[in-house]
Amino acid sequence: MQFLFCFLTQNVALFMYLGNKWSEFFIIVTTLTKQKETMPEKNWMIYGANGYTGRLIAEEALLQGLRPILAGRNHKKIKSLAQRLNLAWCCFDLKNPEIISSYLDRIALLLNCAGPFTATSVPLAKACLKSRTDYLDITGEMEVFEYIHSMNEKAREAGVVLCPGAGFDLIPTDCLAATLKKYLPDANYLALAFDSKGPVSPGTAKTIIEGFKYGGMIRKNGILSAVSLAHKVRKIDFGSGPKMAITISWGDVSTAFYTTGIPNIEVYVALPERAITLMKILRIFRFIISLEPFQKLLKKIVDIKIKGPSVQQRKTSRVHLWGEVINSKGDSVQGEA
Ligand SMILES: NC(=O)c1ccc[n+]([C@@H]2O[C@H](COP(=O)([O-])OP(=O)(O)OC[C@H]3O[C@@H](n4cnc5c(N)ncnc54)[C@H](OP(=O)(O)O)[C@@H]3O)[C@@H](O)[C@H]2O)c1
After folding, report:
1. Nearest to 233 by CA among 243, 224, 223
2. Closest listed residue to residue 126, CA positions, set 146, 105, 151
3. How far does residue 247's CA lie from ligand 1's centre (Å)?
């Protein structure tokens, strides 16, 4: 059965608001901030604000009438951005937990845009528990989702929201997974896929480079299982004819399990055949790519070469999503968005 999604499911309403449009994202930011109105002196902060995505969010926040405090580890870059936008700012790195906590003490909501998040989400989320600050980030990294999920009880006790993944990774795909599950409640297999032609941001490119270290990942019988890069290849029709797609370690392999309870999950990305061949070749060199000096070199190249999508590219780029659930009888439901 084929159908088109409108992303309107009750149990994922928060994620829908966070993810679908910038304006809706800011509705949530405003709401979370207001929850702490008993402490009126508190404000909200964007950490990693001088990065490609942080800067876009800061600029959009201003357009929405919000005035976040800008933060990051680079004094010069943060100060210059804050002066251009006429916003308050502060500078601290993430090495010392006491220092992080001292900066978050008067902050109601932290939006972490400093990625790769494997290095930033743990110290910031821990500090948020201490300062009773709500935490959002825009990660798509599986280990971050698993780690923050493990902090669930502590977050409840502290009365704070810890919500990683409040971006394209992974709100739309999570909504798709939840909707498919509604259509086939006894599904035991879920495949999600996306097809995007737009260029990636610098931080996303670095996160992909880090991802090579871990190879591929799928969920099998409820357990996260390591597999090779491009473990499976299949044809997927995103609405304009079949395209080749390969499995990738996308955040939904972690999170769709918590959303749907489906024990077998694979996430695919559409790629040209040449890129698929390259991914298979990279399997052989994965060990070398994982070495720290090589990782540093590749990230340096990203810093020099990748500046992120231009305004025009952001306006015209489209992402197509596809999903499928199957139950033990072989019944299946597919959806696109
Ligand atoms: N969910 C989504 O839809 C979505 C969309 C876009 C990006 N992302 C993710 O967001 C992250 C950022 O992407 P981007 O393109 O904006 O990156 P970027 O332009 O490279 O900016 C990264 C920012 O994070 C800071 N940072 C990095 N590592 C840090 C560390 N260890 N400690 C403190 N600050 C650190 C950088 O500070 P310096 O300037 O001092 O280096 C910079 O401010 C990436 O992980 C990317 O995958 C997600």
Report:
1. 243
2. 151
3. 24
- For the segment 92-120, the average pLDDT, to the nearest whole number, is 96
pLDDT bracket for residue 211 (50, 70, 90): confident
What is 10-163's CATH number, 2.60.40.10, 3.40.50.150, 3.40.50.720, 3.90.550.10? 3.40.50.720
d(CA 212, CA 144): 16
CA-based end-to-end distance of the chain: 14
The finding on whether 73 has its CB within 6 A of some atom of ligand 1 is yes
Count the residues in the chain: 337
Question: What is the CATH T-level fold of the domain 171-336, as seen in this structure?
Answer: Dihydrodipicolinate Reductase; domain 2 (3.30.360)
Buried b (16+ CB within 10 A) or exposed e, 232-247: eeeebebeeeebebbb
| Ligand 1 atom 14, closest CA | 203
Judge contact between 33 and 11, C-beta under 8 A: no
User: For the chain, what are the domain ranges?
Assistant: 10-163, 171-336
Question: Does pLDDT of 306 surpass 60?
Answer: yes
Q: Give residue for tokens 């599904």.
A: 187
Atom 37, ligand 1: residue with shortest CA distance? 48
How far is the centre of ligand 1, averaged over its atoms, from the C-alpha of 49 (Å)? Answer: 9
pTM attached to this predicted model: 0.87
Element (H, E) at 208: helix 202-214
